Amino acid sequence: MDEVDGMAGNEDRGGMQELINMIKITQLPIICMCNDRQAIKIRSLANYCLDLRFHRPRVEQIKSAVLSIACKENVNLPPDVLTNIIDSSNHDIRQVINNVQMWCSSGLIDSEGLKADALGARKDLHLSAFDVIRKVFAPDISGSQGSVATFNESLDLFFQDYNLIPLFVEENYLNVRVHNTHDDKKILQLMSQAASDIATADIISSTIRSSRTGSWSLLPIQGVFSTVSPGRTLRGSLPGGPGGVSFPSWFGKNSTQSRINRTTSELAAHLRLATHCGSSNPLTLLLDYATPISELITRDIDSAIQFLINYQITREDVDSIMELTTWPNRPNRMLSVDSKVSYQYTY
């Protein structure tokens, strides 16, 4: 079964679980193929499969196979030209064979003509964000065939995923090992310049996504400040290994912020009548009411329960209040309450 990572939408709802159920009961082998091994939906499937990972074939492997085909077809194909064709196709065997067949059938078998056409037929390759971020900070070797990247090639890295790549740059630019300098002051200045560019890109991003302006024509400018400029300013390498590139922590923090906003809105709605609309504003609730309430409901159990009844606070609201008033230097007050006493809050 090919493209199992493409199961999405209403048409394929439940398809992955059904495939797993088939694997559990079938007596015949099922071969599942995917392109994105790190997709969330593939992680559950991988628990029931033998995980075999394949890498792109090397130039020598493709060259020997294509030259064998060319010999059988009585086609004289120079090896150096074939190397250019393979590189321009990003080691895609099917495209290499198709290009060779097309050029041979059209009579373009001279070396110069094939080289020029190979550059024009270069295949766009979608890279993962983890691969892109390493190329961003290595512009000297991230160009075509390992050469110095042009401005457009660096900008293309941003457009691999213009929503995700800036977050990766922001998360990892402080971990870059800057080349060609060991002066701490110079490195700090470069980091400061990169941070300034990232901040400018964030302002541009807010303008682009504003409901009033929606200036999507500024997207290339955001790419320059968020990706191209920091990469060319630092010009270094990220630590190797699986943990060398950090996933953006913005997603977790944004999720936490959204959950807290939702929690404070629900609490404000519950306390609106009891506080005579004094806590109708979630910010007012968080600043003026949350801490005193957390102190009151963790004292005497009888008065605490009566307080909860008077203010129409549910058991879920108690957990929310405890979460809102928990800080790194201020632990959850409910942890200091005896378990037998806290158990009574459930009734």
Automatic annotation (TrEMBL):
One of its GO terms (cellular component) is DNA replication factor C complex. This is Uncharacterized protein. SUPFAM superfamilies: P-loop containing nucleoside triphosphate hydrolases, post-AAA+ oligomerization domain-like. It comes from Schistosoma margrebowiei. CDD domains: HLD_clamp_RFC. GO terms for molecular function: ATP binding; DNA binding; DNA clamp loader activity. Gene3D superfamilies: 1.10.8.60, 1.20.272.10, P-loop containing nucleotide triphosphate hydrolases (3.40.50.300). The keyword Zinc does not apply. Keywords: ATP-binding, DNA replication, Nucleotide-binding. It comes from the Eukaryota. InterPro entries: DNA_pol3_clamp-load_cplx_C, DNA_replication_fac_RFC1_C, P-loop_NTPase, RFC_lid. GO terms for biological process: DNA replication.
